Amino acid sequence: MSLRLQRVEKRYPEFTIRLDLTVAPGELLTLLGPSGCGKTTSLRLVAGFISPDRGRIWIDGRPVDREPAHRRQVGIVFQDYALFPNLNVLDNVRFGPQVQGWPAAEARRRAEELLERVHLAGYGPRRVDTLSGGEKQRVALARALAPRPRLLLLDEPLAALDAKLRQSLRREIHSLQHDFRITTVYVTHDQEEALALSDRIAVMRAGRIEQVGSPEEVYARPRNLFVAGFLGRANLVPCTLGGREGGFLSLQTALGRLQAPAPDGRLPSGIRRWVLVFRPEACRLGGRSGNRFRGRVVRREYQGSQVELEIEAQGVRLAVTVPEQHGQEAANLRSGSPLSFSVDPARCWLIPESGAKSFSSPGS
Question: Is the domain of 151 the same as that of 264?
Answer without folding.
Answer: no
